[in-house]
Amino acid sequence: MSRLRNNKLFVLGIILVSMVVGLCAVSFFYLPHDPNVMNTKERLLSPSVEYLLGTDQFGRDILSRIMVSSRYALFIGLVSVSIGAAIGLFIGAIAATSKGIIQGLLMRMIDGLMAFPGILLAMMLVAVLGEGLWNAVLAIGIFMIPVFARLSYSLVLDQKDELYIKAAQSYGTSRTRIIFKHLLPTIMPRIITQFSASIGNAILIESSLSFLGLGVQPPDASWGLMLSESRQYTLTYPFLSVPPGIILVITVLGFNLIGDAVNDSMVKRRAAA
Amino acid sequence: MLNFIIQRLLSGIGVLFFISIITFVVLMWIPGNPALLSLGTDATPEKVEALKESMGLHVPWYEQYINWLIGFLSGDWGTSYVFGEEILILITQRLPVTLSLAALSLTIAIPFAVMFGVISALYQNKWIDYMARSLMQLGDAVPQFWLALLFLVFFAAGYGWFPVAGFTPMEEGFWVSVHSILLPSIVLAIGQVGPLIRIIRSSMLSSLEQDYMLMTRVNGLSRTRAIGKYALRGAIIAPLTIVGMQLAGILGGAVLVESIFALPGIGRLLLMAVEQRDLILLQGVVFFITSAVVIVNIITDILYRLVNPMIRFGGNHE
Amino acid sequence: MKHFKITLFVAMLVVFLVACGGEEETGSEPNESSSNPTGDEETGDSSEMNSEKTELNMALSVDPDGLDPHRTTAASTFQITNNIYDTLVKVTPDGEFEEGLAESWETSDDGLTITFTLRDGVVFHNGREMTAEDVKYSFERLKGEESPRAGDFANIVEINVIDEKTVEFVTEELNVALLSNFAYPWTAIVPEEASNDLRNNPVGTGPFKLEEWIPQQHLVLVKNEDYYDPAHLEKVTFKMMPDATSQVSALQAGELDVIGLTGDLVGQFEGNDQFTILENQANSIQLMAMNLENEALSDVRVRQAIDLAVDKQALIEAVWWGYGEEIGSHYPPILKEYVDTNDTITYDPERAKELLAEAGYAEGLELDMYLPASYQAYVDAGQVIADELSKVGITANIEIVEWATWLSDVYTNRQYDLTVVGHTGRLDPYVLLSRYHTESGENYFNYSNERVDEILTLVQKERDEDVRVALYQEMQEILAEEVPALYIQSPTILMVTASDVAGFKTYPIDIYEMKDVYFTN
């Protein structure tokens, strides 16, 4: 852990994420303006004391909307990755501890899901499920499954032949028990690393979906949606596309830095061991 | 080796079969249909039913799937409702745009990635390493659609350095064509640089620690020559095969970037197919893209095996 | 009987003559503006035709849905095919009918039969002369099973070729607006030998021929030298540019000559004498439909409360930047049967709350609002309306759906409470209003009113024009009172051209007529 603390990029990541989490926390107690109330007489204003980041095309306060959006971003990031991790872990573990047909079938399925580039899979799922917050969470969650399934598959495969597992098997311990009691605790650190690294990606996908109008629904705000709405005003008021983009970069960067640093330290620890 | 190739091909076919069924079933569930879109606000339930029947949309999904599969295998991928053109022709029309985009973005991304990856591995944990890694992280974190939007606003619309939209084909001159896709290629390249630097840096690091590097030093080779001659080569083979895997990332990025820059490529065709509920086109394009990814992955795996027979599959590449 | 007239609302053609100092184009103030009441005469000091410059570039947001006029209902198709094909009758910018492929026509005394005499010497793009057989074939194709418009022409029961240049149409029931049926761009005359692939290889008799179409890239038309009223332009290129920003930049860079525009972007061109802004009232309306299947919305007081709660002027200002005309009923002001119903219900949120309380919704009301994603203006309007409704205690839960989903779930299956959409008018007002008939398949409001049903039956048979106009006006007043929808506005169509473009006219149907367009010196 001390190694982590000395990693400057890790510290930067923590600072960035804390900023966003702080912004989110504050939004529950204080907002400069109501983020959804329109005032079309004061639209597209430049930043001022009254509106620190200016107003959007309906005269809504951009800062307040960015603050409220942070709730959705963090929520979608955490929940969708949790869904992906849980299902992926399950599939990976089953595949690794089974033989023949089931293993082959499960891994081909995972390969198949992985072959869908970028947001294509999430887009198709939203088209079927319908637009909206929960469906976006579900779609991103499904999108996250293969990464976790593959990781847990290879981790479990590595552990399977270790002595302590063999020993447990020789006592006649059931497969479920072995998975939950022995395998999971050993592979959990690596899964958690992947978890933190995936949150940034999930938030990016959410913003892409919202940009296409498939994520969070108006009048509620989401950074991707704000960027999508800013598209119409790129010529008349280009500033509109700046604040949501920057906060989005800060958030994703923060989570990625943390994930990377944790991953690095894990690799080193393993190398040292 | 032959066994491995056959095994890899068979599992590839299994994956593709799975993908084709999944996409078909998923697409069948999407609400809305081409008959309805064709009628627009003139639609009445009777008119929709009549038109659906004349379009062949009233048969059950498994029958449609079997018809599609038979057609597909015999080289007839069906006809798009929106364009009234054979899907294979539509895809081949648009492929050059997306391929040029992918090629140009990799041409931009690879030199940068190699430079930064190698330098940051050589000076690990020095300031230049931190800088390279921060850049790589930044490239990872910036949403491509936002970058595309900003570039469009400032460099194309604002300063007029680039055309705002559209693609000039190669026939009208190589440089004109490159110029027309330079901006979107840079956007895609920025998305590619991050993962590439990461892979090059880590494979460079591990190859620096290899025994043969020690041997070359023992044999009296200078550090620079040793790096140039052995470590770099060892470090670059891995990323080159991984460029293949980046294909999925480029194609995914192309969906948004092509539509923002109005480039007539595969990505925009795909979005169009989703919006217009042109399911047969969507099925064709999705299957084409995923097949490309699967096939490239198989080739990559085989190449990897050839380059490094000791590699064990199933593990991760770190 | 020959015409029912549509008076085109004063088509404003505003020219800003700018005191332009050298390179400085944007900084200067407009010091003079002139407007032209008809929109068909041009601007600028030199209206002399430039015979050197004959190639025009125009931006389109979407590709046409194929170029077969009998196999689609997409406006994007007819905007282009109107230049490739020709119709028997044509419509003028102010809604009069004039000769097209037909030189003259005659209606029988009972109004059931109409006979056309065809123009001499008209040839298809493939070189073959057009005859009465082609007219018969084209209408049979339009009535065919694969044609989405078949239902609209079911009333035509017989098509008889009298001789090579004469063709007769027999209808089953009296329709006083029969002639308009031969002026729509989907009634184009096509040659049978080319009919298999009109979608990609159109063959017509129109002023332009298709040279090349690369979807999502461009579509090129070249002049048809054999046309009886030849075009001024040699070549028209439509460039597909989905993004408005790209269109504006390309026009400013000189890559384009004509683009369509949204209100927020007008400022980019105002006061710049290099461009001409064209403003025209559209033959269409935009509204927020309410589903009367919903228990709350079936109560007229709730619907009126919703109407009272929305400040339409502010809404038009917010969403369309003021470019649109407020309406109180389902009727665009440019049509002559229009009656002003804006005062029937006016903005009064206090009264709205009272009405809601009377109806038993003092505690509030929750409704689902579906907005079509592909229409940014409707999405924006929905949000502004939802914001206004929240002030009187109505919560509108917005869901943005793709157009295909909207058509299936909202429009056809009528699963919605509120939705914002637009309806385009035709040459015959009946088509615009018939959706309010209880039995109509297009009545997605689930609205039912006996008098309205009765009016809709009467107007089709009424041969006295004054009586007919009165009936249409009565119906507008009923709708304004009962508000099955919140009627918002009739939009203004905004276009910008380079200042040397002239002859660009707008029509009461959604077409571009490129043959009259030319460049000035």
What would your notes on this structure say?
The complex is a heterotrimer of chains A (273), B (318) and C (521). Chain A is an all-alpha fold and 273 residues long. Chain A is built from ten helices and no strands. The model of chain A has no long low-confidence stretch (mean pLDDT 85). Residues 310-318 of chain B have low confidence and may be disordered. Chain B is an all-alpha fold. The radius of gyration of chain B is 24 Å and the shape is globular. By secondary structure, chain C is α+β, with helices and mostly antiparallel strands. Helix content of chain C is 23%, strand content 25%. In chain C, β17 (365-372), α7 and β18 (394-401) form a beta-alpha-beta unit. In chain C, α5 runs antiparallel to α7. Classes of the chains: A mainly alpha (273), B mainly alpha (318), C alpha+beta (521). Chains in contact: A-B, A-C, B-C.
Q: Which class best fits the helix and strand makeup of chain C?
A: alpha+beta
Poorly predicted segments of chain C? 1-46
Number of strands of chain C: 22
Q: What separation lies between the terminal Cα atoms of chain A?
A: 15 Å
Number of H/I helices of chain A:
10
What is the 3D form of chain A? elongated
Oligomer state of the chains in this structure:
heterotrimer
Major sheet description of chain A: none
Return Rg of chain C in Å.
24 Å
Give the helices and strands, then pairings.
The complex is a heterotrimer of chains A (273), B (318) and C (521).
Chain A: H1 2-6, H2 8-29, H3 62-97, H4 100-114, H5 120-129, H6 133-160, H7 163-170, H8 175-211, H9 223-230, H10 242-272
Helix pairs in contact in A: 2-3, 2-10, 3-4, 3-6, 3-8, 4-6, 5-6, 6-8, 7-8, 8-9, 8-10, 9-10
Chain B: H1 2-29, H2 34-39, H3 45-55, H4 61-73, H5 87-122, H6 127-141, H7 144-158, H8 174-208, H9 211-218, H10 223-260, H11 266-275, H12 279-307
Chain C: E1 12-18, E2 30-34, E3 55-60, H1 75-84, E4 89-91, E5 97-99, E6 102-107, E7 113-118, H2 132-142, E8 156-163, E9 166-171, E10 208-214, E11 218-223, E12 235-240, H3 244-252, E13 258-261, E14 275-281, E15 284-290, H4 300-309, H5 312-320, E16 324-326, H6 349-358, E17 365-372, H7 376-390, E18 394-401, H8 403-412, E19 418-424, H9 429-433, H10 450-461, H11 465-482, E20 485-498, E21 501-502, E22 518-519
Parallel strand pairs in C: 3-12, 17-18, 17-19
Antiparallel strand pairs in C: 1-2, 1-14, 4-5, 6-7, 7-9, 8-9, 10-11, 11-12, 13-20, 14-20, 15-19, 15-20, 16-20, 21-22
Helix pairs in contact in C: 4-6, 5-7, 10-11
